[in-house]
Amino acid sequence: MKTILIIDDEEKLRKLMARVISLEGFDVLESGDARSALKKLEQHDVDVIICDVKLPDANGIELSKQLKTAYPLCEIIILTAYGNIPDGVKAIKNGAFDYITKGDDNNRILPLVQRAIEKVNLQKRLQHLESRVGKKYSFDTILGHSKNIMESVSLAKKVAATDTTVLLLGETGTGKEVFAQAIHTAGVRSSKPFIAINCSAFGRDLLESEIFGHKAGAFTGAVKDKKGLFEEANGGTIFLDEIGEMNPDLQSKLLRVLETGEFIKVGDTKTQKADVRIIAATNRDLKQESEEGHFRLDLYYRLSVFQITLPPLRERLKDIEPIAEHFVKVFAAKISKRDLELSREYLEKLKQHSWKGNIRELKNVIERSVILSSGDALTCDSLPYEMQHPELNAGSASSFDLATVEKNHILKVLAHTKGNKTEAARLMNIGLTTLYRKLEEYTIS
Q: In this structure, which CATH number among 2.60.120.560, 3.20.20.140, 3.40.50.300, 3.30.70.100 belongs to the domain 144-311?
C-alpha cells in the first residue's frame, strides 16, 4: 500500500483530504507542522507528500527543497491558499511535483496523487535495475577468497580508479570479461558505455569495420555510413577480447589510437577523435608472440602498461565450492527447483577435475547437474562420465596399450548399465563368464 503524508495546520481541511485519499486505498499520515512531519518521515516509508505553503514553523516551498534532498524518491505536491507564478516556479525548481491552489484541489488532488505515485514507482524500478546492474558487474561478483584471485582483484581495484590501458592475461574461461566489466564499473567512466568485442569472431575487414566504422560505398554491401565501436563507446570503455587474434594491419591502426587518440573510418579520409579506455585480453603469451614476430611489439608494450594475470581454476581449488554453490542457486532458480546442496562426494569430484575450461566449464557442469538432479543434493551420477571416472583421462602413455583400453571400455559399459554385469556382457557381445574373467584380470570389483 502506498503512503501519503499530508502536512497542513488547518485540521478540518487536512482530515477531509485524508478521508478522501484514504478511500482510494492509500495509507494516509497527517502532520500539522514541519517538525512532526519530519519525525513521521523518519518512521515511515512515504511515497507522496502534500504540503501547505504556510506552516506554523516553516515555509512549505523552502521545506520542499529540504525534503527532496533527504527523500529524493518521494514526490511533493505544494498547496497554497493564494497561488502566484513566482512561488509556483520556485516550488518546481525546489523539486516539487506540482503546485496547486486550495480552491481547485478537490477535483485535481486525486489524479495528481495518482500521477505522482506512477512517477515514484518508475523511479524505484529504475533504482532497482541500476542497483542490479551495478552489483552484477562489480568486484563483489568475483567469487572466491584464494590468495591468487584476491591478488588479481586487488590489482584490478587499484587500476580501476585510473584511466590506464589494461591487459588481462589468462586461460579461456577464467573470467577476463567479468574483470573488465568490474574495472569499468568501478572507474570514472562507469556512467558511459562498456562495449566488448571478440577479435577472433570476425575476419580482418569485418573486424576493422566493427571497430572503426565505415563510410557508405567503402566496400560491397556498405550501403550507408556505420558507426564503429570507438564511436559507440565514446567516453566509455572498449574491451578487446582475444586481442592476439587481431590482424597485423589492424594492430597498427589500433596502435595509432593508443598513441594519438585518433582513428579513420574504413573508406574515409578524415580523422576522428576517440575518447575511450581500452582493456584488452588474451589467452596467449603476447610477449613471446611479439618476440617471434606474430604480434606487434610496440602494440604489446602499449597494451601491457598494466597487466593482470587471472589464475586458472585448478590453482584455486578452495574457490570451487563457493563458485559451484553460486551456479547451483542460479540454475535452480531458472527452472524453479528448490535449493540444492553439494554432496561431499560430488564436491570431491569437482576438486579432482583438471578444469581446462575453467569457470566456464564448471558453470556448464553445474547447469547439467541441476537439470538431472532429483533429490535435495547434487550427486556424482549427474556429472559427465569422464568426471565420474577420472582414471579414464590419465593421458599417460600406458593409457594407449590394449589392456588399458579394454579395461576402460569395460568400466564405461558397467557405468552405463549401473553395474548390471549381464547387461554389460550383452552390450559388449561377450559371454558373462568372459566378462567375469576380465573383471578378475583387471581387478575390477
A: 3.40.50.300
